[in-house]
């Protein structure tokens, strides 16, 4: 049996925790003045948590791009792609019904129309499924690129330019001239996440020299600090929350994400772990996808009963609320998973 990649499971659980933190914080930013200590604490937490979604894509790249691993297109589409599609249908329908009812408190022809539109668009956090499906259908082609180290590095560089540099340039224009070559076809999002896929695969399967590792760590720290500073300074300047540095397809978030991934690979991959720790970790990792899908609903329900970061200083309230949502979400998904047929299609 192939040895488990422990650091990938740790990262999957940590990334799920950080996504929950982002969605808790995003609701509460408006509760505080931008120049307040509390707002800046939220900014620090949110900036750090922005590595979460990129880590999900990078971890998928570890396993799905490995050309040495047996791969069946038919099995892949039937198991992985179909699962994402059915999960979207179920959860999008559930969120559409709950949130439409919460707003209108009735069902008529107009409300049914609103609900159907909400279902088609998907709740805000379900965008992740769209992107995963988009990349999954490309995997049979991407795996061929993964056979060549030079091609991998070339593609990462290409994706970094198209998916990170150009979109960031348009948010921070340095000139009034925008050429077709700069704008190009709107593929920046696709290439950005493909870049994360290959970055995860490359870092997991190739060894780096000490100076390269140190450079990545330094750039990662710079990415985190710049995210905090740019968000804080620009928000104060504009008098409203400025969140462009939080975007997943920005160089600063890319740098801190690959640094976090590399750090986990180097430091969180013990050869020997206790059976109890491994059992708990694998259980949490197995349900992380379901936790991601349901956690927004749990946050909404807690918000409805007044559970916000206001109950204490954000230094304490953010991690406490995040842990609470994580645990409740885990219990819900663990319960749903006891239904084999349901588990197969929505988790």
Describe the structure.
The chain has 347 residues and is mostly helical. The chain has one domain (6-346). It is built from 16 helices and no strands. The chain has helices at residues 6-28, 37-49, 52-64, 73-104, 109-121, 127-136, 139-145, 149-171, 180-183, 188-205, 210-238, 251-267, 275-286, 288-304, 314-336, 340-346. Helix 1 packs antiparallel against helix 2 and helix 4 runs antiparallel to helix 6. It is a multi-pass membrane protein. Belongs to the acyltransferase 3 family. It holds the Pfam family Acyl_transf_3. This is Surface polysaccharide O-acyltransferase, integral membrane enzyme.
Secondary structure: helix percent: over 70%
Overall pLDDT metric: 90
Radius of gyration, in Å, reads: 21 Å
Distance between the termini: 25 Å
Determine the strand fraction and express it as a percent band.
under 5%
Number of domains: 1
Main location: membrane
Keywords: Acyltransferase, Cell membrane, Membrane, Transferase, Transmembrane, Transmembrane helix
Subcellular location: Cell membrane
Protein name: Surface polysaccharide O-acyltransferase, integral membrane enzyme
Short description:
This protein is an all-alpha fold and 347 residues long. It has one domain (6-346). The chain is built from 16 helices and no strands.
Entry keywords:
single chain, 347 residues, mainly alpha, 16 helices, 0% strand
What's the topology here?
Elements: H1 6-28, H2 37-49, H3 52-64, H4 73-104, H5 109-121, H6 127-136, H7 139-145, H8 149-171, H9 180-183, H10 188-205, H11 210-238, H12 251-267, H13 275-286, H14 288-304, H15 314-336, H16 340-346
